[in-house]
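Hi there,

I know you've been waiting on this one. I reran it after we fixed the sequence typo, so this is the corrected version. Both the input and the resulting structure follow.
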Amino acid sequence: MRTDDNPELWVFGYGSLMWRPGFEFSEQAPAALIGAHRSLCIYSFHHRGTSQNPGLVLGLDEGGACRGVAFRVAPDRRDATLAYLREREQVTDVYVEAIKPVSLLDGSGRELEALCYVVDRSHPQYAGRLSPEIQARLVRSASGRSGTNIDYVLNTVRHLEEAGIHDAELMSLAQRLAG
């Protein structure tokens, strides 16, 4: 990853980073990333599950597109933000830090490069595409250091809806979990 090339740092959030970034930012805007999509494709052994009872969390997986939020970090907060994100997102190194082109959807027409956490498909925690039944079973039964897996999924869906983002697969899973 080449975050040192540019003192300006933008971070793309597509899951819990959208509503709980956990770092100071000077600007935020709805954004779109082309070439990766939001997917419940990572076995969680830490935040939303354990190695004995894994949960599922989101990753940016290959192909498609993803709507989310881009956060601009002031240059004097850059190093602290990177340290925080690495501690939060790189617990088991299932994500790869990547700089990807992102389009802001705030009417400005701005395109920029943002730090993204993309799933490492070769990592043992990569679950790939699981059936809705398996997803529901795993999510219902898992809990980790950050809380229950079901709360994570339902919070994600609620915040996506509030942001006007329709994610059919996650919404279908939320309905299955509620029923």
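Quick highlight: The longest strand covers residues 55-73.

Best,
R. S.
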